[in-house]
Amino acid sequence: xxxxxxxxxxxxxxxxxxxxxxxxxxxxxxxxxxxxxxxxxxxxxxxxxxxxxxxxxxxxxxxxxxxxxxxxxxxxxxxxxxxxxxxxxxxxxxxxxxxxxxxxxxxxxxxxxxxxxxxxxxxxxxxxxxxxx
Length: 133
Hints:
Blueprint: E1 3-12, E2 15-21, E3 31-32, E4 35-37, H1 44-56, E5 60-70, E6 76-85, E7 96-102, H2 120-131
């Protein structure tokens, strides 16, 4: 059985939010786009809205898909979605010890969790589009 997870590529002012996994979590110290597992009966959008509310305490609008990534070994597939914050900026995270806003130039400077790097090309293209007049 394949486990589905969703990732929020949250943009704001031409940057995207990255989160570093806390020491007590799997993949501790690695960076990722926030999100989590899709529960039974949830759509991807519902799962993302729930996960971002739980992790960051914020509401989001879920937009276009930026792609899906299959784990090379585990039965896991991650779906990335462009999202907009509806009520402020994140101040904390329950699953992460750091939050950071990245420009397209900074995307490739972090040590990412295994499923996130394949989305970086689409995220960089998204950021390039956000900066255009």
